[in-house]
Amino acid sequence: MTQFEVVSPGLLLTVQDRGRPGLAHLGVPPSGAADPAAYELGNRLVGNPPGAAALEATMDGPVLRFDRPTTVALTGATTPEVRTVELLEVGRCVGGVRTYVSVRGGIEVEPTLGSRSTDLLTGLGPAPLRAGDVVRVGPEPAEQPRPATVPGPGVPDAPVLRVVPGPRDDWFSARALESLCSEPWRVSSSSNRVGIRLEGPPLERARHDELLSEGLVTGALQVPASGQPILLMQDHPTTGGYPVIAVVHSDDLWLAGQLAPRRCVRFAIDG
Questions:
Q1: Alpha-carbon gap, residue 140 to 155, rounded angstroms
Q2: Residue 35 in contact with residue 254, Cβ under 8 Å?
Q3: Which parts of the chain are beta strand (E)?
Q4: Residue 107, beta-bridge partner list
Q5: Which domains does the chain possess?
Q6: Beta-carbon neighbour count of residue 157 at 10 Å?
Q7: Per-position pLDDT tens, the chain of length 271
Q8: Burial grade of 262 (CB within 10 A; 0-12, 13-18, 19 or more)
Q9: Which of 48, 102, 195, 201 is deepest in the core (most CB within 10 A)?
Q10: Which residues of 219-232 are buried (b: 16+ CB within 10 A; e: fewer)?
Q11: How many other C-beta atoms lie within 10 A of the C-beta of residue 261?
Q12: Does the global pTM surpass 0.85?
């Protein structure tokens, strides 16, 4: 069976697949690839079945040494390509913040609650990969690689995320939703797979009492007392007590997953 050694993991290297949806009632975050479109494209390019685990590199890609020539695809914050390698040096992410390394056969780690995804919030799944780790690759899939697959969409120069107001937009002044959708927001350097912290004009509250803890979804724009919204990502907590002014459209979550620190983003009401 093919395996590889992590010579260098880059800044953050995790295993991701489609995650653990449907377990919020157990307090389990959904996890999974932060850019699902790039992740799915990578599996198609190397001929893997849907849901095969891949590597997600953040900001800086890994150096991997395979024990034999192996077919891999690079997607996301890189030029989509397929190649056969024994030593893979990915380099820095370009145009976004996350690059996916899809290996023909998939990443063979022990699943937890039906997924091989690393969850940075709860610690479920495999730990982030470190230098010296040796990782197995799954068996050869039946389908052949398809290097001619059309590349996925790139990150636009002026990214806009569509939102649906609520469920707690009534906790904010009328100016708050207008401000959310008219001002540019800067991605904070303290952002991660749990949430993207946004910097901009504070969103004004109409109510200042405490909200009872309630369920949260990926893409929710939760607003703490500072008025600076937090866009919840794949490893977000399943409940919280800050009001949610709006939720990012699920079709735009891939773009949210590629927002780099100091990048500016805008919001627009869907429809």
A1: 32
A2: yes
A3: 3-8, 12-16, 54-58, 63-76, 81-89, 98-103, 107-108, 134-137, 160-165, 185-187, 195-199, 214-215, 220-222, 230-232, 239-240, 244-248, 264-269
A4: 137
A5: 3-137 (no CATH), 160-269 (2.40.100.10)
A6: 6
A7: 899 999 999 999 999 999 999 999 999 999 999 999 999 999 999 999 999 999 999 999 999 999 999 999 999 998 889 999 999 999 999 989 999 999 999 999 999 999 999 999 999 999 999 999 999 999 999 998 987 656 667 788 889 999 999 999 999 998 999 999 999 999 999 999 999 999 999 999 999 888 999 999 999 999 999 999 999 999 999 999 999 999 999 999 999 999 999 999 999 998 7
A8: exposed
A9: 102
A10: bbbbbeeeebbbbb
A11: 14
A12: yes
Closest CA to 202 of 184, 166, 174, 226: 226
Q: How far is CA 201 from CA 18, 89, 120, 185, 227, in A?
A: 35, 41, 29, 8, 8
Quick one: which of 8, 145, 105, 126 has its CA closest to 65?
8
How far, in Å, CA of 120 to CA of 19, rounded?
12
Per-residue HEC secondary structure of 58-73 comes to ECECCEEEEEEEEEEE
Percentages helix, strand, coil for the chain, rounded to the nearest 5? 10, 35, 55
Amino acid in the structure at residue 2: T
